[in-house]
Amino acid sequence: MSYALNGKGGVSEATRQRILEAAEQLGWRPNEAARALSFSRAGAIGFIIARPPQTLGDESFYMQLITGMETELSKSSTALLLQTVETVEESVEAYRRWAAQGRVDGVVVSDLRHDDPRPAALRQLRLPAVALGGDAQTGLPRVYSDESESVREVITYLAGLGHQRIGYVSGSPTYLHVLNRTKVYTDVMLTLGLEPTVEATDFSVESGRSATRRFLASQRPPTALVYDSDAMAVAGLAVATAAGVPVPHDLSIVAWDDSLLCQVVHPALTAISRDIRALGGVAASHLRAVLQSAARGIPQDPSKDALPDVVQPTPHLVTRASTSPPPTSAMTPAPRSGSRRAKNGKGRVTAGPSTPPDVR
């Protein structure tokens, strides 16, 4: 009977169905605490968000992601242990505590960095993990989408409207996904014969405001701005409105990650859309598959995990009222300097290594 109730082999399908039907009629439910002890598992997965607290409340991405994870995990009565820290080093310390105390069976990792210490630490701890984005060099099973194609779609769309001065308000260049977006933006702009200009931020609303003010105060202000988050795009819209710059007549705005915010402001914002809840659900499901493989005796070392990466649908552009052709006076070609100009908030050139398609 236990084989049938626990989904193990050695029982015919007909017998298994009879037992499961009888259990359902009797109202039987597994004791998750006892089951966890029996299988030497915690019955929980962990998720640590390594970002400054002030930036977490500014955007809806993580709330949607966590909702998706919780929805998927509830199907197997698996708990989600959530923690926020400010640095990846604090994440590593938390992983060590969790592993020593047996708090979680595995973890989901996000916001991967260049030379990120977390994948190596997880391998050392033999703690199964799934990465959101990142590159294959991390050695972790991944869930990712082709953000490169999304960036190309946005810049090509704006250039097709006639925009020649297209600025990019990026997130922090410490993140691999930001480095990848910035590189693709720069490459596409240069291919189109346009000059790329980037203002890097820390993803906070205030840094989005400041970047917008710098762009609008420049000698040749952009006629279009692309923002790395919905919250920064809404902040940029407010700055432009206060400065008397009409959107979209004088300035077109595009946000990364469509949300309710993008839809309720006026004008509604053109945005790059993806199903973030589905992304969270797929990440949790993929981690469960990794854990099931480990239970069947497949090596726990994430770098040797046989499960393939999961590729999500490419984020796509949703056009709304915040984008239009630029004013006629702004359509005269500007002289090319021939240099790649990508400035952060302090005016320094920022650059990063080429990375594969990535999510958060």
From TrEMBL:
Residues 319-337 have a biased composition (Low complexity). GO terms for molecular function: DNA-binding transcription factor activity; transcription cis-regulatory region binding. The keyword DNA-binding applies. Residues 1-39 form the HTH lacI-type domain. Pfam families: LacI (PF00356), Peripla_BP_3 (PF13377). Residues 298-360 are annotated as: Disordered. The keyword Transcription applies. Signal peptide: none annotated. SMART domains: HTH_LACI (SM00354). InterPro entries: HTH_LacI, LacI/GalR-like_sensor, Lambda_DNA-bd_dom_sf, Peripla_BP_I. PANTHER family: ALANINE RACEMASE (PTHR30146:SF155), LACI-RELATED TRANSCRIPTIONAL REPRESSOR (PTHR30146). This is DNA-binding LacI/PurR family transcriptional regulator. It comes from Kineococcus aurantiacus.
